[in-house]
């Protein structure tokens, strides 16, 4: 008898840093645990090197569903719309294969989902939704407001679907949390989670950026950039800030204020994450109660990473490790041994081919990622990704966004090229940024505090990586014909 196709529960949060999952063993694990998310990896596999190819919400989601990079699927910035009818589409492939599909929570692709039997996606605030009393756009009812806390609402939607699904068909459920996207309005049940506790600080909280290239060391234009941790201080001091204002800091030094902002930022953020861990507990309990847990491929991940004070940053966008790297934990005991940990590379464009492989569905030729099913199971004969290509495009769309850049991450090295803004693409941007290169040894400098690009000892590695970068760009078709001067700089 052929093996039954697995059910698939894909749980994805928004802006959840791997460092905020206790299974990853960061400094935050000393004061904060995510036991239910951890359980997925403890009973399956945890990937240490899973990366988004564009560390921003909308492009990341299009990459996941299409299995393609942004220059191919057309979604490069927050404002781009994933074209209706676009193919390939992971959900459509599952639906055509007989799966019952549903998505609940954050969608953020600026048009109605296709390929889902049921959808309820966050609608208000530009499809970001709100933490309290959010609106959802529902397939059969239109826009509906719910009176409760968003993480709990999304969880209940997924639970309800699992209880009334068509039990003759396998299911593919995407449970997409808004949390922990800013601003971090936690549930009251977690209000006292860190009473009397100081959150450990990353060593790069006040990084000396003199080692950086000119393209990133002082970037921010004429105003304080939104992604400095200390820039949150202004938000936190507002009288009506969502979780209450930061008080008693008026006479503090500049550095002390930065530390106070960090404490509030991390405590609010981690309280929100605690709500997600509650959600995972409820979903796993439901699968267990139905006797489905071992027949279900369960994945926990995030659309990209998040800076939690590292490099004095909040938000994402930069392609340092904390922004690109996402948690990725998978449970499927029929193939994956419990407690496995893999350092192999995986990119978010690989998700669609991987899930289709588990379902026995052929990967559409137009998908650019490849299946990591064998790697997840620890098969030594399975193919391995040799590098992850990443690109951040938002500088083309918004003044004072981070500088546009691209690069590659291998098992040991990261090469980043900030190419500056081409003259014919400046548009309304009146502060073009300079070009610059950065090279990091991820084995000996995992915190990326020593840019080695100008180090003569690394000259040979540098040139090899630059050639490899050009080859990868050509292979995936991101060749920048519109801006030939970019290739000349490489």
List the helices and strands and how they pair.
Blueprint: E1 7-13, H1 35-42, E2 45-51, H2 57-66, H3 70-73, H4 90-96, E3 100-105, E4 118-122, H5 124-127, E5 135-138, E6 142-145, H6 150-164, E7 171-176, H7 214-217, H8 232-236, H9 254-289, E8 296-302, H10 321-324, E9 325-331, E10 340-347, H11 351-358, H12 373-377, E11 388-392, E12 405-409, E13 413-418, E14 436-441, H13 459-476, H14 484-489
Parallel strand pairs: 1-7, 1-8, 2-10, 3-4, 3-7
Antiparallel strand pairs: 2-9, 4-5, 5-6, 8-9, 11-12, 12-13, 13-14
Notes on the structure:
The structure is a single chain. The protein has 14 helices and 14 strands. With 490 residues, it is α/β, with parallel strands linked by helices. It folds into 2 domains: 7-185 and 268-382, 3-Layer(aba) Sandwich (Alkaline Phosphatase, subunit A), CATH 3.40.720; 389-489, Arylsulfatase, C-terminal domain (2-Layer Sandwich). The strands form 2 sheets. The chain has a 10-stranded mixed beta sheet with strand order 6-5-4-3-7-1-8-9-2-10, sandwiched between helices. A 4-stranded antiparallel beta sheet has the order 11-12-13-14. 48% of the residues are buried. The model is unreliable at 423-430 (pLDDT under 50).
């Amino acid at each position: 008898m052929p093996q039954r196709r697995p059910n698939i529960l894909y749980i994805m949060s928004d802006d959840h840093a791997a460092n905020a999952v206790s299974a990853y063993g960061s400094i935050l694990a000393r004061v904060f645990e995510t036991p239910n998310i951890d359980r997925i990896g403890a009973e399956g596999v945890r990937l240490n090197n899973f990366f988004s190819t564009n560390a921003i919400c909308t492009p990341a989601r299009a990459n996941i569903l299409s299995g393609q990079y942004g220059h191919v699927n057309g979604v490069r910035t927050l404002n781009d719309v994933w074209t209706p009818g676009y193919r390939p589409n992971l959900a459509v492939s599952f639906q055509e294969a007989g799966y019952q599909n549903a998505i609940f929570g954050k969608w953020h692709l600026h048009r109605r989902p296709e390929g889902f039997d049921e959808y309820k996606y966050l609608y208000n605030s530009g499809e970001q939704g709100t933490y309290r009393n959010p609106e959802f756009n529902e397939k059969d009812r239109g826009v509906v407001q719910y009176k409760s806390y968003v993480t709990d609402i999304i969880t209940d939607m997924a639970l309800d679907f699992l209880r009334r699904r068509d039990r003759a068909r396998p299911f593919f459920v995407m449970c997409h949390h808004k949390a922990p996207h800013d601003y971090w309005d936690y549930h009251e049940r977690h209000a006292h989670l860190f009473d009397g506790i100081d959150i450990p600080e990353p060593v790069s909280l006040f990084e000396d950026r003199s080692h950086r290239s000119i393209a990133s060391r002082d970037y921010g234009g004429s105003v304080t950039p939104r992604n400095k941790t200390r820039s949150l201080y202004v938000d936190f001091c507002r009288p009506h800030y969502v979780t209450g204002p930061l008080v008693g800091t008026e006479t503090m030094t500049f550095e002390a204020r930065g530390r106070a902002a960090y404490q509030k930022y991390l405590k609010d953020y981690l309280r929100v994450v605690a709500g997600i861990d509650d959600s995972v507990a409820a979903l796993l309990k439901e699968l267990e109660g139905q006797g489905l847990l071992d027949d279900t491929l369960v994945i926990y991940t995030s659309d990209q990473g998040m800076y939690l004070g590292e490099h004095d940053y909040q938000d994402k966008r930069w392609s340092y490790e904390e922004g690109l790297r996402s948690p990725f934990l998978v449970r499927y005991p029929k193939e994956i041994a419990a407690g496995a940990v893999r350092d192999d590379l995986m990119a978010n464009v690989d998700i669609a081919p991987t899930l289709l492989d588990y379902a026995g569905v052929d990967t559409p030729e137009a998908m650019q990622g490849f299946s990591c099913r064998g790697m997840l199971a620890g098969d030594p004969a399975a193919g391995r990704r040799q590098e992850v290509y990443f690109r951040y495009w938002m500088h083309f769309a918004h003044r004072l966004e981070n500088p546009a850049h691209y690069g590659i991450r291998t098992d040991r090295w990261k090469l980043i090229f900030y190419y500056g803004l081409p003259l014919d693409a400046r548009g309304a941007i009146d502060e073009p940024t300079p070009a610059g290169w950065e090279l990091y040894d991820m084995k000996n400098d995992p915190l990326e505090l020593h840019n080695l690009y100008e180090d003569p000892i690394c000259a040979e590695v540098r040139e090899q990586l630059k050639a490899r970068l050009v080859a990868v760009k050509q292979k995936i078709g991101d060749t920048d014909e519109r801006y030939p001067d970019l290739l000349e700089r490489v």
